[in-house]
Amino acid sequence: MSYLDYNVAHTPTGLRKILYLNWPLVFLIAAVASIGFLMLVSVAGGQVDTWAKPQMYRFAAGMVIMLGLAFVPMWFWRGISIPAYVCCFLLLIAVDMVGVIGMGAQRWIDIGPIRLQPSELMKIALVLLLAAYYDWLAPHRVSRPLWVLIPVVLILAPTALVLIQPDLGTSIMLVAGGGIVMFAAGVSLWYFGAVIAAAVGLVAAVMKSRGTDWQLLKDYQFRRIDTFLDPAADPLGAGYNIIQSQIALGSGGWSGRGFMQGTQSRLNFLPEKHTDFIFTVLAEEFGFVGAMSLLGLYTLIIGFCLYSALTNRDRFAALITIGISGTFFLYFAINMATVMGMLPAKGSPLPLVSYGGTSLMILMLGFGLVQAAHVHRPR
Amino acid sequence: MTRNAARPGDEAGSSVTRRGLMLAGLQLGVVTTLALKLRSMQVEQAEEFRLLADGNSIKIRLLVPARGLIHDRNGIIIAGNEQNYRVTLTREEAGGDVEPVLRRLARLIPISEARMAELLEEFTKRSAVTPIVLADRLSWEQFSSIAVNAPSLAGVTPEAGLSRAYPRAGDLAHVLGYVGPVSDYDLSKIENPDPVLMLPEFQLGKVGFEARMEDVLRGKAGQRRVEVNSAGREMRQLSRQEGDQGATVQMTLDAQLQNYAAQRMGAESAAAVVMDAQTGDILTICSSPSFDPNKFVRGISSADYKALMNHDHRPLADKTVQGVYPPGSTFKMITLLAGLESGLITPGSRFYCPGYTTAGGRRFHCWSRGGHGSMDAVNGLSQSCDVYYYELAQKIGIDRIADMARRLGLGQRHDLPMSAVADGIAPDGAWKQARYGQAWQVGDSLNASIGQGYVLASPLQLAVMTARIASGREVRPRLVRAIDGVTQPEPDFPDLGLSPENLRIARLGMDEVMNGARGTARRSRILREDWRMAGKTGTSQVRNITAAERARGVISNDQLPWNRRDHALFVCYAPVQAPRYAVSVVVEHGGGGSAVAAPVARDILLFALAGGLPPLDAVPDDQRAAMEERHNAMTLFAPEAPRLTRA
After folding, report:
1. Which ranges of the sequence are coiled-coil (chain A) (predicted)?
2. Domain coverage including residue B119
3. Does the structure show a pLDDT above 60 at B508?
4. Is residue B381 part of a domain?
5. Which of A318-332, B25-39, B213-227, B442-456 shows the lowest per-residue confidence on average (mean pLDDT)?
6. ipTM for the assembly
7. Least CB–CB distance from A250: residue in B11, B21, B46
8. Does residue A105 have a pLDDT over 60?
9. Are residues B502 and B540 in the same domain?
10. I need a surface site. Which of A159, A298, B18, B595 has the fewest CB within 10 A?
């Protein structure tokens, strides 16, 4: 049976594709987003119009995008992987240039009403290109140094552009997202071990350098690290947000204070309630039960994605699914760890829940790819 | 990228599977860690955190910074801050129901029923913990009576804050603009608004200098750390760190001169600009009639606002930069200089004026129906002979005229920190094609040559033009003299590149307008030789005169309704020997430039030269009595100079 026959015989066509969608995933995404709407109503003091309503419109648009993309066959995604990467790369350069000309950090380009953030798009494009690369590369070459160097360059080039914006968070996400695809593609564990060892060594060197002549970071950067390690040392200064977040979260207890009853978030102890610290509000108002429910839903989303990937015999599709779900995983894990004080504070949204258009759209675009991979899997 | 043709299907698949499972394991590990951390915080340590939350605690409240002061060039405060006693109410602290508290408060200070309903409506819309301003600008008696009765007024907080005040009231209203409370519309326009904008007492620059210099004037918010109980009520203040006041800005304006200019224009619908002819400093930029910006700061009543909107002299419009007018004969220096610079005429070249000329099959009339006879450059300007310019325009073409207009500052926006600064129009063929899709006609050139037709200029642009002619340099206007005591560098303007001889002719023509035996504005000349003044009148039509009308005899302005009368314009500078001040005056529908605008401009110029009320002996005998009478009728601000730096 030729490749063509194989595809025609086994892949659903036309509107029948809708039956082959990963429906559990669709419902899980909608469930998480609904929790988000509820929390946005709560932080707006019961007002629907403030945040929840615009977010609902965006989510509806995102759903349409996701379902639309699910109909696009894999040969198309494979075909645009290189142009998409190159486009995003050029946009990143353009944004950096505009930033330089405009005398300030700029991360987006305005296209009419849409605010395009190339670094966000790059997360998807990078996964796409790396998946196509490993689909093309013969498996026995995957761990040869030269063939490892190529994806490393593909990852580091856009990362460098994002880093000079400067946007440390997104650059870390790009490296991690790319690393996940490389890991899933079977690159030898020795490489990952070496990178982790080097990172640990670098951190050790940086910390050792403090107070010496060859100090590697500025004093204020060290102070930020101190604050993370011991927020209580400066409760009203930089550690304020983390401490307030922890108090609010912990005081939620087993079942929480109830919807719209969270005193800590209500009294504005918390900053950025509708974006970065929305998980804290959930944990305070719905307690351990509520927080675990959301974590459970997230885990199920990852689970369904991984299951879809592992049962997909198309290597390209499997790698895309793993890469995108891995990025999604990093999003919520980093946000939750941050608000619980396990990671240094830096602005990161809780995926599908935090208020904000760009990250929501990018996520739904990513899930569109995951759905397309699922619908068009060889059977 | 083609797909891996020789893929040993299951081998690749299994590697993905193996690694996928490892990844799943890693992710599960992270999720477990998060879950364990959640459990330890929310289940095991929940009691501790609950105690911390109840004792919580310390809140940071922002303090509105004092807005930067604005001084005039002599240190007189033209925008300051005054003490404002206000009272706010927080719904949560009032126990949820605000109405009884409001009723009790209404016994201490007057709150109308309408206001009461408005407030109740607002409380339903805002969050329970947001303080809402109940009353503003209370007297000290009212304020202290509320403070004394505070125990029975739960949630009510009397506050003393600062509010913007404009001591010169309407004089500088258009240039300074005003501040006001932040609206949702304002917020929607600002990317990442400063949190201080959310405070109810914050005042944001809405229009004019206040808006354009917002970043400089705002300052930095201070912080107050307070301890609150679990209901959000403030228990005590732990620390207070005042913010930084916004920068003190010294403007180039002269408040006394502006005051005189406003009084001199009186109730006319008019605009006056006084500029330093060398440095570009705007000394006065005054639009009349004006309004009291303090009313806008306090929240203007709808009746007052309607009155301003419906006034036919448009007090809210800034006629100095926003208003554009056909410059009329004040444009003739431009046509003349374009002609002289082209080399196609010399100062001695003569044109004959029989009272009209014919071009493109139409008759174009001179203002002097009998004609001026043979005119050279200086006479053509001093007697404002239209036919001289009609002939000149036909000779040199519109492009040279438009180019000269732009070199002298017309048809371009001068970037002053004010609102709605107009571009004006210096028309040429390309402009008409782009704007109307029609070809330029010779008649258009003739109209443009005397500042009619498509030409439009603001009083600011006319002042810039005059300053450039007087100094021969590319003077640009400026309004900021110093910020926080740091004086802006003295500008060094490049030479205009016009031939000194041609400039001399244009200046001589303007001198003759004032001092020549047949000058059109001779009546408004300055007698003192060391203040000798040069100028040019202009009268611009706001309607077309039809042939039929002309046949019947042109109706004089006095017989027309106000809004159809001609605009009166005048530009001038002095002293002729060493130009210091350039002035432009436009009186909307005032009639003739020489009769209406010139005396106003002359008096303002005299005030600038004398540094105070114009001495009577500087004007011709027959005008002294009238001038004295005018001075006596004026109520001017005392020339006090309180050089305060900080409020």
Report:
1. none
2. 60-251
3. yes
4. yes
5. B213-227
6. 0.89
7. B46
8. no
9. yes
10. B18
